[in-house]
Amino acid sequence: MPIKPRFFTPAEVAAHNTADDLWVSFLGKVCDLSPLMTRYRGDILLLPIMEFAGKDIGSWFDPETKDILKHVDPLTNCVRYYTPRGRFVHVPPGGPCSDWDSDTGQPWWRDPGYEVGLLTAKARWIRVVNTLTSQEQQLEVCSEETLAEILQRYLRYNGHAHSYTWKHNGAILDMSRTLVQNNVPDNDRELEQLRLDRDLYVPSILLHFNDDLTEA
């Protein structure tokens, strides 16, 4: 049974960038706002969200309060939400407004119903090499993922991935642990400091075929 992803890369979030399929990330969370877009279809207050479809909007929020940033309005001297891109859905107007529905319930940025997972703190690349067929595939994965979760990503390229033993530098990998926990280091920072091409130093995971065949 496929494992539901816990973490997503920025590239995966960026792939959902239309009104009918719109994801954003903020404060470490990844949210699918497609239902919000459908509910308020045609509303001008969706425009700021549309502008950032598939992107990180963490700059909109106060990391301590987990709420939209606030400021003192220079015209009214009142504290209000700071929305330099324009007011968006569930943000109240700056003053009295006859068409404002104050009974909107929980604002979308506090509603866990929109959350689909977490944004990885660090995406990294690995090279998966099938020693039986000599086929190799580069995968961008999340540093927090276990090898079992990475295997789920690889299944699209090899439906029998469960029938292989995964190794790195001759050592069998523990599928319940992450790459770093399996001594597969992430040297991106060091390579960047040395101004070396990271693409030339992508760590390889070797897949060794077992006798049994699992079903695709």
From TrEMBL:
Q: What Gene Ontology molecular-function terms does this entry list?
A: metal ion binding
Q: Name one GO biological process term.
A: cilium movement
Keyword set for this entry? Cell projection, Cytoplasm, Cytoskeleton, Heme, Iron, Metal-binding
Q: Which residues form a coiled coil?
A: none
The record's InterPro entries line, in alphabetical order, gives: Cyt_B5-like_heme/steroid-bd, Cyt_B5-like_heme/steroid_sf, Cytochrome_b5_domain
Domain Cytochrome b5 heme-binding: from-to ranges = 5-71
Q: Which SUPFAM superfamilies match?
A: Cytochrome b5-like heme/steroid binding domain
Keyword Nuclease tagged: no
- One GO CC term, this protein: axoneme
- List where in the cell it is found: Cytoplasm, Cytoskeleton, Cilium axoneme
Q: Does the keyword Heme apply?
A: yes
Q: What does this protein do?
A: Radial spoke stalk protein that binds heme under oxidizing conditions. Required for the coordinated beating of multiple cilia maybe by functioning in a redox signaling pathway.
Task: Give the family this protein belongs to, as stated in its UniProt record.
Answer: Belongs to the cytochrome b5 family.
Query: What is the protein's name according to its record?
Result: Cytochrome b5 domain-containing protein 1
| The organism of origin for this protein | Scophthalmus maximus (Turbot)
